[in-house]
């Protein structure tokens, strides 16, 4: 959600800013802009739409600049509201939300100041101008002390030598050193040239000038440790695939294999195993796709370990005055580790005495600083906005926790049932192109419904989310038994239904719902690992999955659902990597 890039160094800044913004496009945005500091002040280029609209700015001269991709929160997507914002001697880009911007804006207007945008972000440039006493860092500290909410800020001043000033609170910001200069950015891909990177913590500032980076808090200068990172994944490549989403789907087997953890055999998790032994309750907080992985984990944990699990949307958790009993383990799931609502929920749970374990794909992310334990999914960088391999990786890790909990409670559970999942997912992927047969039916639908019972329900929820995210078709996921409690009124020839059925004990119950759809003219795509069901007359088309442990079946059944969403989006002319209005990392509440 939004992207920041800054450069100060020996070479022209503009090409580096545009390249950095292109590497951040996967985060989601609706406008883009850059500002370069030159002899005559700032040169600013802003465009609604894609970063490619900034190409004409590549010839700008000046070795210091800032750039931004904006995802609209305050003010419509437009060139007027795009960053950077300029006021007086200052240029500013901002990620996050300034919650008290209205009252601050009234102060500025009372001084006769006029605003050039409808954003909350522009207020930062105005306040910097007001508090400027010749020391930009001091002014920035004063301004930040007045801001409520979240921010990652990169600032330039037209006076003095080339320099960047950055600050962070609840929104990621990194800085680094490359061969030709210094960089600031909101995520690692934008600064792949840097051999040395540092991550700012909340309340920290950095000054980049003269080939050096210095770090500060409100109290004074501090020292920082370099980030540990692997450069191999910093620059994303499609590797011959048409889209990142398709490439990442084919990376699912490796993501699962890399995310499985045998907690019993891994001595690094001795302390975590001790916590599992004492755990009596589990709360899971997450958003979107991660929330669906939490629902799948609830089925597995309760069945295997017989421990009660409560799954709550993170944006609701902090406002429902949650009850945190003694010996409660909270699993906070966030692919990016920066999901604002999940961070807030994890913080509250920790304050109320829970042990918090973070499940994330990103090292050095904000959630790693909150949690008592950090469990990495190791899915590798995911570029497409709609999650695919990261969901499967989350399931792999959460199922590992379920097995470990069962073992800790003296119940029978075999990790061997997890070891086969990478090969089974590869088998599933081998047949996903078969889904193209039904794409025209779905692409022309008025709406689509996904149904399933038990663990299949969470696959239905995730399949529905994927379809609506990238094909823009109205879609909902339901427990199969709920279909006749209202939704059946919407079923007809233009409303296909996807039924997920991987549990023999529930087969006839789910097929009853399939029959109800068939009787009303609806066409059913059945995703199942029970071959004889595919031949039933009520089934329009089917996808046959390899057999696996029923509790873990969503890790396979979701793959053809991801493929359905992907091929439907492409059929409808949509870019599956960059769905409209959505962001990869949701860093605002």
Give keywords:
single chain, 589 residues, alpha/beta, Glutamine Phosphoribosylpyrophosphate, subunit 1, domain 1, Rossmann fold, 3 domains, seven-stranded antiparallel beta sheet, 18 helices, 22% strand, globular
Named at the architecture level, the CATH assignment of the largest domain is 4-Layer Sandwich
Care to count the β-strands? 24
Largest sheet: 7 strands, antiparallel
CATH level 4 superfamily of the largest domain: Aminohydrolase, N-terminal nucleophile (Ntn) domain
**Which geometry do the CA atoms define?**
globular
Identify the strand order in the major beta sheet.
3-2-4-1-10-9-11
| Distance linking N and C termini | 11 Å
Q: List the total number of helices.
A: 18
The residue-averaged pLDDT reads 91
- Taken together, the total number of domains comes to 3
Briefly say what this structure is.
The protein is α/β, with parallel strands linked by helices and 589 residues long.
Blueprint of the fold:
Blueprint: E1 3-9, H1 13-23, E2 31-38, E3 41-48, E4 64-70, E5 85-87, E6 90-95, H2 101-110, H3 122-131, H4 136-146, E7 151-157, E8 164-169, E9 174-177, E10 181-185, E11 196-199, E12 205-209, E13 212-216, E14 221-222, H5 244-250, H6 252-259, H7 270-278, E15 281-286, H8 288-305, E16 309-313, H9 314-317, E17 328-334, H10 340-351, E18 355-360, H11 367-370, E19 373-376, H12 389-408, H13 416-419, H14 421-429, H15 439-443, E20 448-452, H16 455-471, E21 475-479, E22 497-501, H17 507-519, E23 524-528, E24 541-544, H18 554-571
Parallel strand pairs: 15-16, 15-17, 17-18, 18-19, 20-21, 20-22, 22-23, 23-24
Antiparallel strand pairs: 1-4, 1-10, 2-3, 2-4, 5-6, 6-7, 7-8, 8-12, 9-10, 9-11, 12-13, 13-14
Helix pairs in contact: 3-4, 6-12, 6-14, 8-12, 8-16, 12-18, 14-18, 16-18
């Amino acid at each position: 959600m939004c992207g920041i890039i800054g450069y100060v160094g020996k070479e022209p800044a503009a090409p580096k800013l545009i390249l950095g913004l292109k590497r951040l496009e996967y985060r989601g945005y609706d406008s883009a802009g850059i500002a370069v500091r030159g002899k005559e002040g700032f040169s600013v280029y802003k465009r609604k739409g894609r970063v490619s609209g900034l190409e004409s700015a590549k010839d700008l001269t000046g070795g210091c600049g800032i750039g931004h991709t904006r995802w609209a929160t305050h003010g419509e997507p437009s060139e007027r509201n795009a960053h950077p914002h300029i006021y007086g001697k200052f240029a500013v880009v901002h990620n996050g939300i300034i919650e008290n911007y209205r009252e601050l804006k009234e102060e500025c207007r009372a001084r006769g100041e006029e605003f050039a945008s409808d954003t909350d972000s522009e207020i930062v440039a105005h306040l910097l101008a007001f508090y400027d006493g010749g020391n930009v860092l001091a002014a920035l500290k004063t301004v930040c002390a007045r801001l409520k909410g979240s921010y990652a800020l990169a600032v330039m001043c037209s006076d003095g030598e080339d320099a960047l000033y950055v600050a962070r609170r609840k929104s990621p910001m990194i800085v680094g050193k490359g061969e030709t200069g210094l960089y600031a950015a909101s995520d690692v891909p934008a600064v792949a040239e840097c051999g040395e990177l540092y991550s700012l913590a909340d309340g920290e500032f950095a000054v980049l000038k003269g080939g050096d980076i210095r770090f500060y808090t409100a109290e004074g200068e501090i020292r920082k440790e370099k980030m540990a990172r692997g450069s191999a994944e910093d620059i994303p490549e499609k590797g011959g695939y048409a889209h990142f989403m398709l490439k990442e789907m084919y990376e699912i087997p490796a993501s699962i294999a890399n995310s499985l953890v045998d907690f019993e055999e891994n001595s690094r998790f001795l302390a975590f195993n001790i916590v599992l032994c004492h755990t009596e309750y589990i709360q899971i907080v997450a958003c979107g796709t991660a929330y669906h992985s939490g629902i799948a984990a609830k089925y597995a944990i309760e069945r295997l370990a017989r421990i009660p699990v409560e799954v709550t949307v993170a944006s609701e958790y902090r406002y429902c005055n949650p009850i945190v009993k003694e010996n409660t383990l909270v699993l906070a799931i966030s692919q990016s580790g920066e999901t604002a609502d999940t961070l807030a929920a994890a913080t509250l749970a920790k304050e109320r005495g829970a042990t918090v374990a973070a499940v994330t794909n990103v090292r050095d992310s904000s959630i790693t600083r909150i949690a008592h334990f950090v469990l990495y999914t190791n899915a590798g960088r995911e570029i497409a906005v709609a999650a695919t391999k990261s969901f499967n990786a989350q399931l792999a890790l959460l199922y590992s926790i379920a097995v470990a909990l069962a073992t800790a409670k003296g119940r029978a559970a075999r990790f061997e049932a997890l070891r086969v999942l990478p090969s089974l997912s590869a088998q599933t992927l081998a047949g996903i192109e078969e889904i193209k047969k039904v794409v025209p039916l779905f692409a022309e639908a008025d709406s689509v419904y996904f149904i399933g019972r038990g663990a299949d329900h969470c696959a239905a929820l995730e399949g529905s989310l994927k379809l609506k995210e990238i094909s823009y078709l109205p879609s909902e996921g339901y427990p199969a038994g709920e279909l006749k409690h209202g939704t059946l009124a919407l079923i007809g020839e233009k409303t296909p239904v996807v039924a997920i059925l991987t549990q023999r004990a529930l087969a006839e119950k789910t097929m009853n719902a399939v029959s109800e759809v068939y009787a009303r003219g609806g066409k059913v795509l059945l995703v199942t690992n029970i071959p004889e069901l595919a031949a039933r007359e009520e089934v329009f088309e089917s996808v046959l999955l390899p057999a696996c442990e029923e509790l873990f079946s969503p890790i396979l059944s979701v793959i053809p659902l991801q493929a359905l969403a992907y091929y439907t989006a492409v059929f409808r002319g949509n870019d599956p990597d960059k769905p409209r209005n959505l962001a990869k990392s949701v860093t605002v509440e």
